[in-house]
Amino acid sequence: MSRFWSDIVHRLTPYVPGEQPKLAHPVKLNTNENPYPPSPRVVDAIRRELGETADALRRYPDPSARELRETVAAHHGIRAEQIFVGNGSDEVLAHVFQALLKHAHPILFPDITYSFYPTYARLYEVEYRTVALDEAFAIHLDEYAAPNGGVLFPNPNAPTGRALPLADIERLLERNTESVVVVDEAYVDFGAGSAIGLIDRYPNLLVVQTVSKARSLAGMRVGFAFGNAALIEALNRVKDSFNSYPLDRLALAAATAAYKDDAWFRDSCDKVVASRERLSAELTALGFEVVPSAANFVFARHEGYDAATLATQLREKEIFVRHFKAPRIDQHLRISIGTDAECDALLNALRDILGGYVG
Ligand code: PMP
Questions:
Q1: Is this prediction's pTM over 0.85?
Q2: Long-range Cβ pairs for the range 20-27 (8 Å, 24+)
Q3: Partners of 48 in the beta sheet?
Q4: pLDDT digit string (tens) for 157-204?
Q5: CA 217, 221, 225, 230 torsion: positive or negative?
Q6: CATH: 3.40.50.920, 3.40.640.10, 1.20.1250.20, 3.40.50.300. Which one for 40-261?
Q7: How far, in Å, from the CA of 185 to the mean position of ligand 1?
Q8: Is 218 touching ligand 1 by the criterion CB < 6 Å?
Q9: pLDDT of 231 higher than 90
Q10: What angle do CA 122, 88, 139 make, to 5 degrees?
Q11: Is 151 helix (H, G, I), strand (E, B) or coil?
Q12: What percent of the chain has pLDDT over 90?
């Protein structure tokens, strides 16, 4: 605490990202990164951008990210004017809170969801109300019918991994016409249906995506919002009042190249999905209850074994998973899908630890 702080700083509860261990070969299953590298075309594009002498880096990058937006627009069959880009989808979400969600009524989001949402709400002084997931962690969008300043949820949800059918989202959009509906699709490519195809029909729909997960570029920090041009303009107004160049030249080159290699992207998603199904089955066989996942992670609890203790014991074996000390989920672990070798290392460690457990 300091008397030099602005008033609001005293009231912030910063988001805590997953640990980035400083070990040579950790089994890192705690931040939902992709276990496979990005497309070789990404590497070529970065090398090309750098050239021999990195001369291009003398110049500022394109503040409008035009080439990237045109490439992504072609990929999704939409117009570049319907796309906003930011420094990771976290920054996109931050601008969404400031540009589109601050109104007379509180915004609504699930009680169990991405923990950055309440953090942004406090930062931008956006009032919010949470809506409880059911016992099986399913979202019921019918319960979002109250007057609101906006509705926000990930699909699939995080950290549960559960996906909502698109028909449910469309039913919400038909009813909820007076505020923005934000669908955070960070994990959509691993098994849910994208709502991007609905943006022409619903002027209040905003879909947020990222290259961090399915395109293996968490280290590059590139995210998107897709929606009606008026929503995109609101985001650009905030962005241009904040940072003209949120994406550097290498990030622009890398993300553009990633969208030009569809086969690589599909193959890496397919491998992650296959490993997820195998890991879910093996965890179930070990006595875990695993929430059905459409994402690149699973959310699981063991009937007779404390989740925080389990996370600590795994950590001692240099295996990192995520545990949230939060109501309703403090007996669960969120486990990112690794390579098959990493999943095996986790399963072997669990067999070791649980071997001493008599249920
Ligand atoms: N939304 C959700 C639901 C997430 O889990 C994450 C990753 N932590 C993000 C958005 C942000 O991802 P990024 O900033 O890397 O695009």
A1: yes
A2: 21/318, 21/320, 23/318, 25/318, 26/318, 26/319, 26/320, 27/318, 27/319, 27/320, 27/338, 27/342, 27/345, 27/346
A3: none
A4: 999 999 999 999 999 999 999 999 999 999 999 999 999 999 999 999
A5: negative
A6: 3.40.640.10
A7: 9
A8: yes
A9: yes
A10: 60
A11: strand
A12: 95
The protein residue with its alpha carbon nearest to ligand 1, atom 12, reads: 89
To test the ligand 1 pocket, which listed residue (72, 95, 109, 210) has its Cβ within 8 A of the most ligand atoms? Answer: 210
Nearest CA residue ID for atom 8, ligand 1: 31
Place of tokens 């998603």: 269
Residue 266 token pair? 């599909």
Sign of dihedral through CA atoms 182, 151, 239, 5?
Answer: negative
pLDDT one-digit tens code per residue, 7-65: 999 999 899 888 889 998 999 999 999 999 999 999 999 999 999 999 999 999 999 99
| Strand blocks (E) in the chain | 27-28, 83-86, 107-110, 128-131, 151-154, 181-184, 205-210, 223-227, 288-290, 297-302, 319-320, 332-336
10 Å CB burial of residue 206 (0-12, 13-18, 19+) is: buried
pLDDT score for 357:
58
| 249, two tokens | 């030249």
Q: At what angle do helices 229-239 and 88-100 cross, to 10 degrees?
A: 100
| Residue 355 banded pLDDT, cuts 50, 70, 90 | confident
> Per the CATH hierarchy, to which homologous superfamily does domain 2-37+263-355 belong?
Aspartate Aminotransferase, domain 1 (3.90.1150.10)
Please report how the helices 88-100 and 116-123 are oriented relative to each other, as an axis angle in degrees rounded to 10: 50
Please give the structure tokens belonging to residue 235: 């985001």
pLDDT of residue 314: 97
Residue spans of the domains in the chain: they are 2-37+263-355, 40-261
